[in-house]
Specification:
alpha+beta, DNA Polymerase III, Chain A, domain 2, nine-stranded antiparallel sheet
Length: 371
């Protein structure tokens, strides 16, 4: 194997794949990146056995071949070299030399034959979506998930392709205490069957990190895996087996009290009174006076003190009162677009719904704390 590659291109490719490698593994090969030179292309691959990332860059390939090298050492080394061409050559004993204008370095590798095979998905059924739209949607649901070993079916994001002609993709995340749902329009779809997949959070965190530009993301699903293709990078992951809870049945369709609040004053009020919430419970009380169009937000901690903030709000329906974990409330508010937020409730034992007048495709459910 022998090739010449630009430092900035190699550095960028390594930054895309290196996060999957970790020292916390009993398999040393998983610390390595597979480098394969073939037909004018350099392909870099890493895997943790659940996720695989493959990134391609251009290179002047003088001799084809492949080898694995310690990913973190290689990344750190390449980042410290100036922006210039690097000549890379595999010599004997799985050693690789790196030559540039003023640098000569030799790194010991492991044979490519020991590197795990990254599964391939046939690129037949395809959904396409703009990268920034998908990234925004992922960020709005991932935070609501708390990875759990006891309920693996909610340790990932539900990808639901169930709209007429699959024009839309619905993403859902929950930890059973709160739930976030975001619906996005697909740019293109050639798959007309209904399909639900549960994609691990770690996979989607890696995917979100990769998405930067307005380019399209291609999504190729299968029964046991899902493939995301973005620019010259492919990310493949297993999907979580099991059936996602029928969350639609817990979304209230009618409410006793509907409140419209200005988002920023509401956020500030929650942060203010939260300083006096009970440790470990994080409780704040919301009282709605429909006749006066007032929302009273308060908290009481016998060891610290108490706080109360009154907001002028628009309230439709009856007076009401409810207690929330302020952290869950803040998480939802931060991810709601626009200057106003709708808070719709029934009582202190059913989920409340947060939404935006400006984004009808996003909702956030949060369970109250029972008195």
């Amino acid at each position: 194997m022998k090739f010449i590659v630009l430092q900035k291109n190699l550095s960028k490719a390594l930054s895309k794949v290196n996060r999957l490698t970790t020292s916390k593994t009993t398999l040393p090969i998983l610390n390595n990146v597979l480098i394969e030179a073939k037909k004018g292309t350099l392909e870099l691959s890493t895997t943790n056995l659940e996720i695989g990332i493959i990134s391609q860059i251009g290179a002047k390939v003088e001799k084809e071949g492949k080898i694995t090298l310690p990913c973190q050492i290689l990344t750190n080394f390449i980042d410290l070299i100036g922006e210039e061409a690097i000549e890379v050559e595999l010599i004997e004993n799985n050693e690789v030399t790196f030559k540039s204008k003023n640098i000569f370095t030799k790194i010991k590798g492991i044979s490519a034959e020991e590197f795990p095979i990254i599964p391939q998905i046939e690129k037949e059924n395809c959904f396409k979506i703009k990268a920034k739209i998908l990234k925004n949607a992922l960020d709005k649901v991932i935070f609501a998930i708390s990875p759990t070993e006891t309920r693996t079916e909610i340790s990932g994001v539900l990808f639901s392709f169930n709209s007429p002609e699959n024009e839309f993709l619905t993403l859902v995340g929950t930890d059973s205490y709160r739930l976030a749902e975001k619906v996005v329009k697909l740019t293109e779809s050639n798959f007309n069957e209904k399909l639900n997949l549960i994609v691990p959070v770690k996979t989607l965190q890696e995917l979100s990190r990769l998405l930067e530009k307005e380019e399209l993301v291609e999504i190729y699903p299968s029964e046991s895996q899902i493939l995301f293709v973005y620019e010259s990078t492919e990310l493949i992951s297993r999907v979580i087996s099991g059936e996602y809870p029928d969350y639609k049945q817990i979304i209230p369709q009618s409410f006793i009290t509907k409140v419209t609040l200005e988002k920023e004053p509401f956020l500030k009020a929650i942060k203010t009174v939260s300083l006096f919430s009970k440790t470990g419970i994080n409780d704040i009380n919301l009282k709605f006076e429909a006749k006066n169009n007032k929302t009273i937000i308060s908290s009481l901690n016998n060891q610290i003190g108490q706080s109360e903030v009154i907001l002028e709000t628009e309230i439709k329906g009856d007076d009401n009162e409810i207690i929330f974990n302020y952290r869950y409330l803040l998480d939802g508010l931060i991810n709601i677009s626009g200057e106003e937020v709708n808070l719709n409730i029934i009582n202190d034992s059913t989920p409340a719904v947060l939404s935006s007048p400006e984004d009808k495709q996003y909702l956030y459910l949060v369970m109250p704390i029972k008195k």
